[in-house]
Specification:
Blueprint (H helix, E strand, L loop, with lengths): L3 E2 L5 E5 L6 E4 L8 E5 L4 E9 L2 E8 L2 E8 L3 E5 L2
């Protein structure tokens, strides 16, 4: 797995799924273990790391911070950081 960096994608993102939650996965593919589920319309942070169409994101829920990969198709940037 290659992880790249692009400062232009840094930002706070909103989960923009049609209905259900967006999975945060341990690897940048649909076979990666699910480590968290981000509900629709919640926010996460991408610090500019990505692998293909997958952004490395950090998500906090109930004091637990999860970092993994989510598909960029379901993320909409709220603002740049």
């Amino acid at each position: 797995m290659t992880v790249n960096y692009n400062k232009n994608i840094r930002g706070v993102y909103i989960v923009a799924t049609d209905t259900g939650p967006l999975m945060v996965r341990a690897e940048p593919n649909t076979d990666g273990t699910v480590i968290a589920e981000m509900p629709k319309n919640t926010k996460c942070i991408c610090l500019g790391c990505y692998s293909g169409n997958w952004y490395a994101v950090t998500y906090e829920n109930g004091g637990i911070i999860s970092t993994g990969f989510s598909h960029k198709k379901y993320l909409r940037r709220d603002y740049k950081i």
